[in-house]
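Readers of this paper often ask what the protein records in our data store actually look like. An entry from our holdings is shown next, in its original layout:
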Amino acid sequence: MTLESANPNLFDENASPVPDHIGRSAWRIGVVLLWALIALQLAWYLVLLPPARVSPWLPLAFLGLPLLIPALCALAQMKKALFWAGFIAMFHFTHGVMEAWTVPAALWPGLIEAALAAGVCCAAAWHGLSRRIYWRKLVNAASEEAGA
């Protein structure tokens, strides 16, 4: 008995199944964190630390609109919305760390932004990492079975 005949998914890690509850959990957590990140941007620039020299809508347009697009796509149940949210959240992680490091008044909003952005990135990667871990378990089990 060869490994190919034991399980055809062994040589394509993208074809290996992952339990549905993993994908649903990652999706829900990612979308909640994404909306929390958008709410933080609104609170930050409209209430907590509004900019002194420009309208608060300028940084909101620059930082909030790119997040709003995948958030609306997530409401429409588009599959790649969380991926793009994770990609955009990487910039927010960098922004949060930079603000927390350089502006003393923005320490806590910056740290919260960095934590929420990291959470969105982790939720976006959660399903793919779970698929890879499950695939490795399949390969190890099949190789042990073939060796026995």
The radius of gyration is 20 Å.
